[in-house]
Amino acid sequence: MTDGSVRHKAKTAFQNLYYPIAALLISLLLGSIVILLTAKSSPWEAYRAMFKGAFGTPRAWDETFVKAIPFMFTALSFAIARRCGIINLGAEGQFRMGALLGTLVGVNFPGLPLWVHLPMALVAGFIGGALYGLIVGLLKIRFGASELITTIMLNYVAAQIIDFCVNGPLKDSANSSYPQSAQLFDSAIMPKLMAGTSRLHWGLALVLAAIFFYYFFLWKTTKGFEMRVVGLNPAAGAYAGMSIPKSSLLAMLLAGGFAGLGGCVEIVAVQFRLMLTSFSVSYGFTGIAVALMGNNNPIGIFFSGVLFGGLQSGSLKMQTLTDVSSSVVLVVQALIILFIAGRAMFKIRRASPVPVNVKGPSDPTKPILDTRGDAV
Amino acid sequence: MSILVSFLSSTLMLSTPTLIAGLGIVFSERAGIVNIGTEGMMLIGALSGVIGSLMTGSVWLGCLFAMVVTVLFAMVFAVFTVFVKADQTVIGTGMNILASGLTITINRAVFGASTSPPRIDAFSKAPIPLLSDIPVLGPVLFSQPVPVYVAFLLVPVAWFVLFRTHIGLKVRAVGEHPRACDTVGINVARSRFLAILYSGLMAGFAGAFVSMGQMTFFTENMIAGGGFMALAAVVFGNYTPFGIMGASLVFGASNALKFQLQALNTGIPSQFLVMLPYIITILALCGLIGRSNKPAASAVPYVKE
Asked: How many beta carbons lie within 10 A of that of residue B251, not counting itself?
């Protein structure tokens, strides 16, 4: 390895960390202005309480990971579609459909052993999300319908389907008048990772496996390579004989599957039944923030997932310890999205600004192909 | 008969915010900007309208305040998308989360967690003399709050501006072929910037109507998809003001029907009616309902060479 390539690697690593950290710091700073204006507690107290609630104790770490798991799934959903040049705003709906199908399997089939019932529920969740994602891909390929609008519309359709199911066919009318499903059978419930009161569950292993799959598939398989080429430069991909429709469909299938699996895990490991309030956190849209912050990179997604999980669980602690509303965290998350998407404004040197094109590579600092479509 | 009157009347009422916001979005869409942040802008308008009305005691001043605040909020979107040239969709998503966070935080800080909201001056029905006495049509068409009249009167105005004036031509041109516009000396960035601010102005008005016309106070996340509905109306209405009016009426009717069905206890699940606007929008997007007027440079940032 030459000296130059080491320096190049260090430079890339710096660039990969520079934007997220700059965005995080500026967002926290602006968030503190909101705190100053709306609360009596000082921003310092608020952030300290938040940090304590997120990372202060082993118990806090547990909760942070529990909150982070669904975000990592939806982040993978956004990221894999993005790598193929598709903007998936539909993780929200795909997450719901995964939760719905997972619930459907979980409240039926009594008497199955855990090792059959739980995997069945998880597979159902994956399929629910994957099919819902596939609709987006098909509409785009067949009719040229922009995924920007179809995904958003389908999110609302999914919300109504859930609403209908918990008020109708799935409603647990025997035990409650609330619009909610029955509790899942024990055989469909994800075991905890550790004995005791910790809520951390085996979903963590599952999401790590999903992150590894994301890495392995995109960087170590031909299909994944084609997907990235199509995402970076569709013309080059087509010229090299790659099928853009096939890659897009596969990307949306996997994107939906990741989100669906996330929704299913949230039900089988955390909530145990489907409720109208099951989706009070905006999992899909937070996933976009996580993916952006992690630069659609597997390791990046893991760490930014932990950060956002921490923000989520820490915000609740902050609300109990101080008079700062937990919704301040939404402001911070939103600002992170704005500053990372608008990272061009943080460029240190302005010699040759690289235009950030919507249809172009997700990371303009890393050109992977030359103009003929050959890998460099 | 009274059921019909109340159904038609609530259809107009429910389609009004969609129409107002849609008439703003159509300008930014035509200029090549996909304004997914409308949802958040309406939320900002809803809260600032209530605050303005509470401070001044006048719903109209409140509404004006909402429009000013929302334009300032839209300016953030405009700076990021037009000048920083960031991805419009992602910025729009960020704006929605930002609006949700800001409005919840400010609402809790200003009004606390009190269960009984203070009374504010809200839009009341303004029957037009004589015309409102016509049977059926009168109570439906001529006995509405003023913003409803304004919204529908703005439709031909928006059509005229968009298709018969120099401003409209510029807006449409920068959405179709920004490079050509740049060549002939049209300032693409400025046109797009102003189009976004205008869509923010209208979103603020629409949001204020939701909190002070349909309701009489602000509740957290009260827009609940209204901004996306307006975006859908623009797509389904094929990017023309009259089309948007038709789409808003269809969407409003399916919502109004939902309430009627619930009241009549028919047993038809109302969720499917609520789904309807979203599904027809998808069908419209697929080109199953005529040719699309979607601008060629939609969602593509313009980079000067």
From this structure: 29
What angle do helix axes A114-143 and A147-167 make, rounded to 10 degrees? 140
- Yes or no, beta carbons of B88 and A358 under 8 Å apart: yes
Q: Which of A96, A148, A276, A286 to mutate to test the interface with B (most CBs of B within 10 A)?
A: A148
**Separation in Å, CA of B135 to nearest CA in chain A:** 37
Report which secondary-structure segment, H or E, holds A360.
none
Taking alpha carbons only, the member of B186, B227, B304, B277 closest to residue B70 is B227
8 Å CB contact of B299 and A282: no
User: How far apart (Å, rounded) are the C-alpha atoms in residues A252 and A230?
Assistant: 13
Q: Which residues, 6 or more positions from B156, have their beta carbon under 8 angstroms from its beta carbon?
A: B241
Dmax (CA) for chain A in angstroms is 71
Cβ pair B277, B285 in contact under 8 A = no
- pLDDT score at A351: 46
For chain B, the distance separating the N- and C-terminal CA atoms, rounded to the nearest angstrom, is 63
pLDDT greater than 70 at residue A313: yes
Question: What token pair was written down for B96?
Answer: 């929605």
Say if CB B195 and CB B31 are below 8 A apart.
yes
Using a CB-CB cut-off of 8 Å, the residues of chain A touching B299 are 146, 148, 358
Which residues in B lie closer than 8 A to residue A333 (C-beta atoms)?
97, 101
- Cα A189 → chain centroid: 22
Task: Write out pLDDT tens, residues B206-224.
Answer: 999 999 999 888 998 899 8
From chain B, pick out residues whose CB is under 8 angstroms from the CB of A156: 225, 228, 274-275, 278
Kindly report the nearest CA distance between residue B131 and chain A, in angstroms.
39
Closest Cβ opposite residue A164 in set B108, B109, B271: B271
Residue A22 contacts B where some CB pair is shorter than 8 Å: no
> Are the Cβ atoms of B278 and A139 closer than 8 angstroms?
no
Does A38 sit within 8 Å of B104, measured CB to CB? no
Give strand pairing partners of A275.
A180
A196 backbone φψ class: left, alpha, beta (φ>0; ψ -120 to 50): left
Alpha helices (runs of H) in chain A, residue ranges in sequence order: 3-38, 43-51, 58-83, 91-106, 114-143, 147-167, 203-220, 222-232, 234-239, 244-265, 283-293, 298-321, 328-341
pLDDT surpasses 60 at B142: yes
Chain A residue whose CA is closest to B99: A331
Which residue of chain A comes nearest to B281, CA vs CA? A153
Task: State whether residue A32 sits within 8 Å of chain B by CB.
Answer: no
Which stretch, B65-69, B114-118, B226-230, has highest mean pLDDT? Answer: B65-69
Interface pTM, i.e. ipTM: 0.91
Phi-psi region of B217 (alpha: psi -120 to 50; beta: other; left: phi over 0): beta
Residue from the list A144, A157, A330 with its beta carbon closest to the beta carbon of B100? A330
Name the residue among B13, B33, B19 with its Cα closest to residue B202: B19
Q: What contacts 24+ positions apart, CB below 8 Å, involve B155-164?
A: B155/B19, B155/B23, B155/B241, B155/B242, B155/B244, B155/B245, B156/B241, B158/B23, B158/B26, B158/B27, B158/B241, B159/B240, B159/B241, B159/B242, B162/B26, B162/B27, B162/B30, B162/B240, B162/B241
